[in-house]
Amino acid sequence: MNPSNRRPGGAELLDAFLEWQIAARHYPGAVVHVERDGKVLASRAAGVIDPETGAPMSENAVFRIASMTKPIVSTLALMLVEQGRLALDEPVERWLPELAGLKLASGKAPARQPTVRDLMRHTSGFAYVGEIRDPALRAAAAKADLDGKLPTLTPAEVLATLAALPLACEPGTQFLYGFSTDVLGLVVERVTGARLGDALREALFDPLGMNDTGFSVPEAAAGRFARAHAEDRLWHGFSDKYALGQRMGTPMQSGGGGLVSTVADYARFARMLVGGGQAAGRRFLSEATLQQMFANQLDALNPGPVGFTGPGFGFGLGLAVRLDWGASATPSTAGELTWFGICGTVVWLHPRERWFALQFGANMRSRMLSRMEFRRTAQFLLDES
User: Fold this and answer.
1) Which of 74, 115, 190, 284 could form a disulfide with 95 if both were Cys (CB 3.0 to 4.6 A apart)?
2) Residue 97 three-state SS
3) In the annotation, is 67 catalytic?
């Protein structure tokens, strides 16, 4: 074969993808990892960790993973369900009486109050401002500014703010992305009697060896914290809010977006999910519970997370799930799962095919393009394996 006609392999395409992302200033650097059935297909650190210092990116770089916190907190909640300490279909107000008697924008009581299941599938009505369709309710939510203030509020202040706002929908009827997993984290705190970070460390982080994952960046790890380009002001604004909360003692440990982590740590978590709920010599979730977690929990009339994933996805208990063959923004098959963080991180995983792929970068401006292109690139590696 003429070498000039040789088709590049998946590893070469991955290197080219990273070079393109860095040259186009999508992020200063990134760490990626693709693995199938325990075999690492690719693991790379490229670019720089901080554009101001020029320090090279390292595989143990710490990233703000934002909403990739949500699948982790949902997993802990499901562990509590298995232990009989929490029920999926019990009302949230059982554990958080501060949220009793919630109303709709009309002033009327909803047909039912939000449940724990609603929190995991984002059908509770606790929506981010950008997800609210009703103009008056959207204006009220924008004035309350929970989106901006949450990292610096106490749990009591967060609950008081949510209690004062009408629900954005009848619970169980619409996928409206928002504060559901923050509320779920507070439920976990009430059930366990511990701060969310402590509960996560005991149940997941320590057993899995996720030593660099938590709600703050330790001083000793400050040099490993990945930062975006200066012009990515959205990333810096988001990160600075959580850094301020950290300096204040992190009053609210956000179950919806507060964690920092490394690719190696999140790989340990993803490996457990694709490994049937087992890792590090112990079982974390039963296969029956994982089936519920990975199954679409939305009815056929619910459009689901289309604004986040593109068409073809529903939502399980903490993760988006590919429903079937058909229109999709990325190459994928039924049963594939994904979620991502607004600061530039993403996980794709397929339990049946036993693979997962991770890209961590500091990038808010073009994060959607970056994660879609990474998924396409990862497919070449998966096809070769």
Assistant:
1) 190
2) helix
3) yes
Which value, in Å, is the radius of gyration of the alpha carbons in the chain?
20
Query: For position 362, which CATH number holds?
Result: 3.40.710.10
Q: How many alpha carbons lie under 13 Å from residue 288 in its C-beta half-sphere?
A: 2
Give yes or no for residue 1 having a pLDDT over 50.
Answer: no
218 pLDDT exceeds 50?
A: yes
Quote the CA–CA distance of 253 and 143 in Å, as a whole number: 22
Q: What does each C-alpha distance from 234 to 50, 227, 342, 360, 364 come to in angstroms?
A: 16, 12, 10, 17, 6
Could you give the CA distance from residue 53 to residue 228 in angstroms, rounded to a whole number? 12
**pLDDT tens-digit readout, 324-368:** 867 777 788 899 999 999 999 999 999 999 999 999 999 998 898
Q: Give the residue among 221, 213, 217, 209 at the shortest CA–CA distance from 71.
A: 213
Q: Note whether residue 362 is domain-resident.
A: yes
- Identified catalytic residue from 4, 43, 67, 239: 67
277 in a domain, yes or no? yes
In tens, the pLDDT along 301-319 reads 788 898 888 888 999 999 9
Lowest mean pLDDT among 106-110, 261-265, 328-332, 341-345: 328-332
Is residue 105 over pLDDT 50? Answer: yes
Q: Which residues contact 3 (CB under 8 A, 6 or more apart)?
A: none
- Domain of residue 267 covers 3-66+254-384
Asked if residue 126 belongs to a domain, the reply is no
In a domain, 210, yes or no: no
- What pairing do the DSSP bridges indicate for beta strands 39-47 and 29-36? antiparallel
CB atoms near residue 299 (< 10 Å): 11
